[in-house]
């Protein structure tokens, strides 16, 4: 076993996998930030615009939420001209995650009493001012745990990028697998990937639970 450990976890192999992890985390952060912005716009449109743009946002959300992520990654990799495969795959992940975030935001908006708009209007606030200064801050406070849970999901979803050959964490592990010959070494590589994903996601899950607990105590 010690020989297998030395074979798998050479400095070059570990450094190679850590570079893959770095890329996966960078993609996750970028996708989450952009998805929160775009997803908020989609959620607002679907919730408050009952005409064309609201229906368009609803169609977008339902389309992406009810189709496989890998399908969109493959579609973007073939249909989008130019650019790198990493950007194409990340773009597909962004489109998919935005639809999920939109529903999270919409749930937060629906949890705010409609009387908040009436009270804001009585104070001279316009509809947009009411959203920006009163409704959205309250909605986001309620959905932070759900957004953190989506961050965890997005980190795990970056593993789908391995199917496009993008050298993120899972793909880097697959490359290392091509160098090993023993079954024990295969288990070590997969075990290492699983352990790192677990540590990151479990840590974030602990943050989510702590947030829930604090909110419950102050409710």
Automatic annotation (TrEMBL):
One of its GO terms (cellular component) is ATP-binding cassette (ABC) transporter complex. It is a multi-pass membrane protein. GO terms for biological process: amino acid transport. GO terms for molecular function: transmembrane transporter activity. SUPFAM superfamilies: MetI-like. Residues 21-208 form the ABC transmembrane type-1 domain. It is found in: Cell membrane. PROSITE patterns: ABC_TM1 (PS50928). The chain crosses the membrane at residues 23-48, 187-208. Keywords: Cell membrane, Membrane, Transmembrane, Transmembrane helix, Transport. InterPro entries: AA_ABC_transptr_permease_3TM, ArtM/GltK/GlnP/TcyL/YhdX-like, MetI-like, MetI-like_sf. Belongs to the binding-protein-dependent transport system permease family. NCBIfam families: HEQRo_perm_3TM. This is Amino acid ABC transporter permease. It comes from Trichococcus shcherbakoviae subsp. psychrophilus.
């Amino acid at each position: 076993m010690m020989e297998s450990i030395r074979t798998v976890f050479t400095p070059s192999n570990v450094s190679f996998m850590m570079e893959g992890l770095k890329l996966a985390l960078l993609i996750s952060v970028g996708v989450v930030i952009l998805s929160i912005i775009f997803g908020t716009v989609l959620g607002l449109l679907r919730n408050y615009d009952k005409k064309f743009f609201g229906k368009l946002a609803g169609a977008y959300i339902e389309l992406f939420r009810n189709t496989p992520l890998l399908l969109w990654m493959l579609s973007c990799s073939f249909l989008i001209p130019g650019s790198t495969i990493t950007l194409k795959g990340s773009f597909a992940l962004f489109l998919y995650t935005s639809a999920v975030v939109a529903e999270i935001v919409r749930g937060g908006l629906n949890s705010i009493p409609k009387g908040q708009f009436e009270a804001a209007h009585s104070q001279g606030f316009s509809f947009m001012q009411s959203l920006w200064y009163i409704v959205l801050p309250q909605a986001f406070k309620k959905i932070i745990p759900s957004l953190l849970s989506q961050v965890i999901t997005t980190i795990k979803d970056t593993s789908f990028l391995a199917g496009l050959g993008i050298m993120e964490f899972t793909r880097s592990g697959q490359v290392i697998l091509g160098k090993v010959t023993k079954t024990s070494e295969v288990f070590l590589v997969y075990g290492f990937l699983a352990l790192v994903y677990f540590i990151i996601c479990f840590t974030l899950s602990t943050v989510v639970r702590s947030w829930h607990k604090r909110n419950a105590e102050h409710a």
